[in-house]
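G., the chain you wanted modeled:
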Amino acid sequence: MSQFPPVRALLFDLDGTLIDSETQTDEAIETVVARYGSPGFRLPNSDTRGRTWAHAAETILRLTCLEVSAAQLEAQLLAEWNIATARVNPIPGAPAALRAAAACGLKLAVVSSSPRSVIDSFVRRLQIEDCIAAQACVGGDNVRIGKPDPECFLLAARRLGVEPAEALVFEDSSAGLQAARSAGMRAMFITCCAADFDGSMALATGSFTHYERLPADFWAQLAAGKQELAGRSFT
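Predicted structure as C-alpha cells:
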C-alpha cells in the first residue's frame, strides 16, 4: 500500500539537470555580445537559468544598444551555445538514473527551455532514446510561453497521460521550479549547477546534489509510493 502520493511520471529539465551546460550559456552570451563591441557583458542568472534564448535575446536588446534583430540575436546565441556544448558532460549519474527509473515503470519526459532540436540531440548523446518517447520531449519552441509559466510541464503531463499531481519535476532553476509549482507538481531541486540556491530551495519539495547521491532504491521506492520527498535533502 502506498504511503505517499503516487508518482507515475518524471519530468526532467535539460540544462543543469541532465547536462552540465549552464556555464556555456554565460560564455555564449558574452561571446556574441562582444562581437557587437560590448565585451564582458553578462545577464543575471534569473534571465538565463531556465529561460529561453528568445527571452535572453530580448533582455540583451533591452539593456544594450546592439543593432541586430531579436530573431537574429537569438539564432546567434543558440549557435554559439551549440559550439560551446559540443563536449559537455552529463550531470553525474544522470543517464543511469533515467534508465533505472524507466525500468521501475515510471514514465519519463524531458522538458526544457532549449529548442526541441537541442533536446533530441542530447537525448541521443546521453543514449537514453529507449527511455523517452519522442512526444515526451517538450522544448521552448513547443509552447507559447516559457518557464516560469507552467505550460511546458502541463503539456508534458498530458502527453504522458498523467495528472499534474502524479508528476515529479527535476529542476535546477527558480524559473523551472516556479513553473512546476504553478502546474501543481512536486519538484526535486538539483543543486550541483544551481545559481539561486536559497530561492530555488524555497520552491522545491526536496533537493539532491546529483543523481549519484540518491539512494540505490530511490526509483523503486518512488514508483511504489514509499519514498518521502517533502523536506528531504540527499547530499
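The chain has a mean pLDDT of 96.

Shout if anything looks off.
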